Automatic annotation (TrEMBL):
Residues 1-22 form the signal peptide. Residues 443-653 form the Peptidase S9 prolyl oligopeptidase catalytic domain. GO terms for biological process: proteolysis. It comes from Dyella japonica A8. It comes from the Bacteria. GO terms for molecular function: serine-type endopeptidase activity. Keywords: Hydrolase, Signal. This is Prolyl oligopeptidase. Pfam families: Peptidase_S9. The lineage of its organism: Bacteria, Pseudomonadati, Pseudomonadota, Gammaproteobacteria, Lysobacterales.
Length: 658
């Protein structure tokens, strides 16, 4: 019977998706968005909801697990479903996104929609189009609001309401003091329950649905954490950060609300999880620490009422239990044994923990969702995120570690061309991640890495100082080091690849996006004999311009952040800008720019393009007027992949072997 049900579910999803068998993966398939991105089970286990792409159109897929039937809900024209939340056993809320100038992917419209698990009762509960008769049919009138809402708690003990955080659109560049409402999931009625004590806050609720913590940053970009003892109580500043001191970050309450788990600082450790005692309001000794890696996620109990484990990524993903006999850790361990080589994460579960949706993914595979049933202790396959990707054709990511010139430990990933894992002296691409601060490369499927490795290039990624995931001290070691020690880390990684016999010394290219675009051009200038070519993708090439152009400098906190992380010496920043150092450039150059980029305005790339033209320096130029800070349209990503690989072939493959 269960096998029959599994087949029925699979058939329903297959019919809904219009799936066909995929051929060998070309660049166009690496450029495709995943088919299923977010899968959640209803609180009673009857329904599944998933964000889906069907025949190029974004949809919300709803499946009745008891009947093996399903329906597809279309978002408004031009929109796509961004996230979803089960408010109770039969009603799901979802948010939509739309293309907005300056952003590389759809931006949430701020609206909240609702629909029953069987596809009936579709309503627009909140947003600037609420009350629109084209979507809203309930008799109770709703007023449109020019504001954005976010679900912060689905209120397990109240099936008719959820908590939402609301920010008005006219709040200015510095943001607003969020207001929190109880939203009726039947008709959109709402009741105010709290106001945040700081701007653009994020919230932690207890298991009674009461907002207890508000966290964010002040106007100087220093962390702040506020606390209140219960409903209707006043907010109190609990932790105040400074340039020298970080603040603990509240993450979740334990089962009986007596403790709050917080990300905390422990001397000599990159990451730590500490319980904060509610009664004494004192931090307790850590229940988890790691000398290398920071917390990347928490493992909740199957009923989602407690914390039972910690996720981190020192190299490959690691999950460690903090509670003896953890039910969630047992499920993860069982699935990991059944699916070797994959990282298993619980993404959704029923209120009683009897059914679990888990995602198993790897560096070779965007992942597959599984449904685990406590009654049988077994899991059945639900959905592949990208069924056209064949893991056996992909390049693996091998964690690597080495020392920087000043002795700092660095970590990264090496991807060798499939079938050439033991080869030596290969044409190599140093692929530098953006950010730079708090962002990292990790052990996951990366279409850009696969684009390079499957075309015959060794790919080296390095988490230079300043990257996230290795603790606060490592991240802050990159402050004010644009073009300095951060760049030296990338150079040292390149020399390591040469010394290990991986990279052919005269066939190395450096490539990156955003900060990585800066590092690509700065690397080619600072080390003119090391790199044969450089590819700058939506990169920064004029550092002082970051203080005058772009969305970071629009906010006071953003300006404080730039002063802290970039520095204030404009002459020094100008001297570390690729635009002003072209006399040293020897490498071949390719520039990729999005015309609607607000984070790094296109003038950054256009000015460098013009300067190279003025000098008579031939270079490749890819400009897409409708793209932003990273290409999003599949056809444009495909063209980017094609032009990048062709540029690399011309620049590296023709070089003489060492």
């Amino acid at each position: 019977m269960r096998k029959l049900l599994g087949r029925a579910v699979g058939c329903a999803l297959y019919v809904l998706s219009g799936a066909v068998c995929a051929a060998a993966v070309p660049l166009a398939d690496l450029a495709r968005h995943v088919q299923y991105d977010n899968v959640k089970i209803s609180s009673d286990g009857r329904y599944l909801a998933a964000t889906a792409v069907v025949k190029g159109k974004p949809m919300l897929a709803l499946v009745d697990l008891t009947k093996g039937t399903g329906v597809m809900m279309k978002p408004r024209e031009g929109n796509q479903v961004i996230d979803l939340y089960w408010a109770n056993g039969h009603r799901v809320l979802y948010t939509e996104g739309t293309k907005v100038s300056g952003f590389d992917r759809p931006v949430p419209t701020g609206e909240i929609f609702a629909v029953n698990g069987d596809g009936t009762g579709s309503e627009l509960l909140f947003g600037y189009r609420a009350g629109d008769t084209a979507r809203s049919t309930h008799l109770k009138k709703r007023e449109p609001e020019r504001a954005s809402a976010m679900v912060i708690d689905t209120l397990r003990d109240d099936e008719n309401h959820v908590l939402i955080s609301v920010v008005p659109w006219d709040s200015g560049a510095d943001g607003a003091f969020n207001e929190i409402f109880a939203l009726d999931v039947r008709d959109g009625g709402k009741r105010k329950v709290a106001t945040a004590p700081l701007r653009s806050a994020r919230f932690i609720t207890d298991h009674h649905g009461v907002v207890r913590f508000a966290a964010g940053v002040d106007s100087q970009a220093h962390g702040q954490v506020y606390y209140r003892e219960g409903e209707g109580k006043s907010w109190r500043l609990l932790f105040q950060g400074s340039a020298e001191n970080n603040v603990p970050v509240p993450l979740a309450f334990n089962r009986d609300d007596s403790r709050v788990y917080m990300a905390c600082d422990v001397p000599g450790k990159a990451g730590a999880l500490c319980p904060w005692d509610v009664a004494t309001q004192l931090m307790q000794p850590p229940v988890w620490t790691n000398a290398t890696a920071d917390i990347s996620g928490l493992v909740r109990s199957l009923d989602r009422q407690d914390i039972e484990g910690v996720q981190s990524m020192p190299g490959t993903p690691t999950t460690e239990g903090i509670v003896a006999g953890s039910d969630a850790m047992k499920v993860i361990s069982s699935l990991s044994q059944a699916l070797p080589g994959r990282s298993v994460e619980i993404v959704s579960s029923t209120d009683d923990g009897s059914k679990v949706v888990a995602l198993a993914s790897s560096d070779l595979d965007p992942g597959t969702f599984y449904l685990w049933d406590a009654a049988t202790g077994k899991a059945s396959q639900l959905l592949q995120r990208a069924p056209w990707v064949k893991p056996e054709q992909m390049a693996s990511k091998r964690p690597v570690a080495f020392k920087a010139r000043d002795g700092m430990s660095l970590h990264g990933y090496l991807s060798m061309p499939p079938g050439a894992e033991e080869s030596k002296h290969l044409p190599t691409v140093i692929y530098v991640h953006g950010g730079p601060f708090g962002v990292r490369d990790d052990w996951e499927f990366d279409p850009y890495v696969q684009m390079l490795a499957t075309r015959g290039y060794a790919v080296l990624q390095v988490n230079y100082r300043g990257s996230g995931g290795y603790g606060r001290a490592f991240e802050e070691a990159g402050y004010r080091e644009w073009g300095g020690k951060m760049q030296d880390d990338v150079t040292d990684a390149t020399h390591w690849a040469i010394q290990q016999g991986i990279a052919a010394p005269d066939r190395i290219c450096i490539f990156g996006g955003s900060y990585g675009g800066y590092a690509a051009l700065e690397g080619a200038i600072k080390e003119p004999d090391l790199y044969r070519c450089a590819i700058g993708y939506v990169g920064v090439y004029d550092l002082p311009m970051m203080f005058t152009d772009g969305d970071i400098s629009d906010r006071r906190a953003g300006m404080s952040y730039l002063r802290t992380t970039l520095g204030t010496d404009q002459a020094e920043l100008a001297g570390r800008s690729p635009l002003n150092q072209l006399d040293r450039l020897k490498a071949r150059v390719m520039l990729i720019v999005g015309g609607e980029d607000e984070r790094v305005p296109p003038v950054q790339g256009q000015n460098l393009h013009a300067a190279l033209q003025k000098r008579g320096v031939a270079h490749e130029w890819l400009y897409k007027s409708g793209e932003a800070h990273g290409f999003y349209v599949e056809e444009n990503i495909t063209e980017l992949f094609e032009q990048v690989t062709q540029f690399l072939d011309r620049s590296l493959q023709g070089a003489a072997a060492p």
